[in-house]
From TrEMBL:
GO cellular component, one term: chloroplast membrane
Membrane protein topology class: Multi-pass membrane protein
InterPro entries: Phytol/farnesol_kinase
Record keyword Zinc-finger present: no
Protein known as: phytol kinase
Membership in a protein family: Belongs to the polyprenol kinase family.
Catalytic activity: phytol + CTP = phytyl phosphate + CDP + H(+)
Keyword terms of this UniProt record: Chloroplast, Kinase, Membrane, Plastid, Transferase, Transit peptide, Transmembrane, Transmembrane helix
Top EC class for this record: transferase
PANTHER family: DOLICHOL KINASE (PTHR32523:SF8), PHYTOL KINASE 1, CHLOROPLASTIC (PTHR32523)
Biological processes annotated in GO: vitamin E biosynthetic process
EC numbers: 2.7.1.182
Amino acid sequence: MEGKITWFNKIYIKSRELSGLALDSLFCFISFSAARMSLSLSFTHPILSRHVYSAVFPPPRFLFLSPHIPTTSRFPILYRAPQRATALSATAATASIFRDTAASASVFAGAYALVFTFDILTQKELIQQNLSRKLVHILSGLLFAISWPIFSNADEARYFASLVPLINCLRLVIHGLSLSDDQSLIKSVTREGNPKELLRGPLYYVAMLMLCALAFWRESPVGVICLANMCGGDGFADIIGRKYGSSKIPYNQSKSWVGSISMFVSGFIISIGMLYYYSALGYLQLDWGYTMHRVALISLVATVVESLPITMLIDDNISGPLASMLAAYLTFGQ
């Protein structure tokens, strides 16, 4: 047989069904016999090695054989199946999207149920409105941060998580502009029951939730420390400071020593608790000796900034979180 034979007539394949075999790759030998005009394949795969798969086709009229070359050639071919990896990747991506969608819906439902519960408690006068507002302030952000592990490990998971504060941002804007009326929402998160308040502190609050999820997510301690100080530290400072804060800070008569100390202590404890939570789940690896000192410094920075008389210039739901975020970023370096 001279030259290369580049044609195939009708090929009749005799083989067993191969569907269901989990083959990442298989190594086969092709034997081509020009005299018989047949093609046979033998595989090295343990499942397929017992069988020979052959193809037979009639010789063309113009074929001439040379006596100087062998009529049978045998050469190896390595076959890989990338379509299997593609199929698995597509399946994993679909599962991640489904999981993240379900997680977003669950977190949003939980946030709505939290506000609804405290609204009922306020209406029945089982809890004061100011206390209800601050408990919502504490719990909604911390529960949001605690919920992050239920999302998948996909890179897009943080965007699904951020949908929850984004939807709440839209709700606050709609009701803050009085485009729609939701008295339960207004009573739960405002000081004086004015819808326009929704466009200030509460809106900045949920914006910070979204920023921490998008920018830092689960792999950085910065986001969880920022939320711990904003939600827990500031929340407990207001609750305890209102009740026991008779001694005011000299440079800011609207803040008390008890409230500031409460913010530092609660911010520190909640930050350590959140870091331990994510460390136990394997998202963070921390040297706790250094971590304790760093978290204490961050909580101190957040407390000092919170105590400054700058509320008329910048809302404390912006100044405090940004200060703790910057301090955490500089101390942890990530």
